[in-house]
Amino acid sequence: MSTQEILRKYLPQRDQMLLMLHEIQQHNPGNNITPADIRQVAEYLNTTSASVYGVVRYYSMFSMAPRGKFVIRFCKSPLCRMVGAFNVLKSLEKELSIHMGETTSDMLFTLEPSECLGHCDKAPVMMVNDQVYFHLDEARLQEIISQIREQELKKQQS
Ligand code: FES
Fold first, then answer.
1. What is the number of the ligand 1 atom nearest to the C-alpha of 78?
2. CA distance 93 to 69
3. Is 64's C-beta closer than 6 angstroms to any atom of ligand 1?
4. Same structural domain for residues 23 and 84?
5. Which of 29, 109, 111, 149 has a Cα-to-Cα distance from 93 of 20 to 30 A?
């Protein structure tokens, strides 16, 4: 679906901007917002590219840099750190063969730091796109990553 097709699904009102940007980002192969998207959103909302760019830069859920299909937001806030998030993160980096802020060479995963994800009672916590995962340890991480890889492989083969 093109950016124009996505825009036409929404009323040309500024309070729709976050929803538009979110959907555009999801549909882009690089899981990001491009300068062309920003121009088109600005024209559709009859505003400036600078104001749309400001929104994209403000919210950490948006990225202008290409990212993997699955963006992992790993909580690095104190409560998660207190229950072993650092060691879990090391396992995750090893499992993916990347470091925080990087994307796997197959463009499947991007690993990003996150502030508190609001589930401190179930720490350590991470999000993969819109899905939240709790009580993480090395075994659970391997299970999650393997499941995603297997699902993607099946999609490619079908
Ligand atoms: S500190 Fe990690 S979810 Fe709150």
1. 1
2. 17
3. no
4. no
5. 29
